[in-house]
Amino acid sequence: MHLPSSKSPEMSSSIEAMTSDMFAGIHEALQEYHGELVQTGSPTILCSVLPTHWRSNKSLPIAFKVVVLDDVMDGTIVTIRAGNDDNYCGELRNCTAVVKNQVAKFNDLRFVGRSGRGKSFTLSIMVGSSPHQIASYNKAIKVTVDGPREPRSKSSKYH
User: Fold this and answer.
1) What is the rounded distance in angstroms from the CA atom of residue 96 to the CA atom of residue 126?
2) How far apart are CA 66 and CA 100, in angstroms?
């Protein structure tokens, strides 16, 4: 027994057009930010690559960006949180941004709290859409008082 197809040709073409528009938007975003973005724990959220080690309360070398591949309205709030086993809620400055054209740009994101000796922060990226979306960027950045420096064994001279 054959059942009639529930899809009309008009519906199929509209779904195809919608899918093609979605993939075109994703392709455009990936081309624009090629090499700058890293995959998060969510397949629809990408973010800027952070330095592996950074100094506490110092501006990042480039603005941190979150790209949301889902259809999210402009004006949606994106919030960043940082934490690890030693410091479950690391202090951040300027950790909220507004989505515009699928991108939330954090102009002066600063990590004030330190991640601890030999430890890195995991970032939680929360998109205030409906429904809410949460992504994690594991071992994103190590934050210390003096930032990256030469190891003591290389910098000190033996007398």
Assistant:
1) 9
2) 11
Whether residue 18 has pLDDT greater than 70 = no
The per-type count for the chain, helices as H runs and strands as E runs, is 2, 11
Q: Spell out the domains of the chain, with CATH numbers in brackets.
A: 40-143 (2.60.40.720)
How far is residue 85's CA from residue 62's CA, in Å, rounded to a whole number? 27
Report residue 9: phi and psi, to 5°. Answer: -60, -35
Kindly state the percentage of the chain with pLDDT values over 70.
75
DSSP 58-101: ---SS-EEEEE-S---TT-EEEEEEE-SS-TTB-EES-EEEEET
What are the distances in angstroms from CA 115 to CA 62, 90, 119?
20, 7, 6
Supply the pTM of this predicted model.
Answer: 0.75
- Determine the average pLDDT of the residues in 132-158: 82
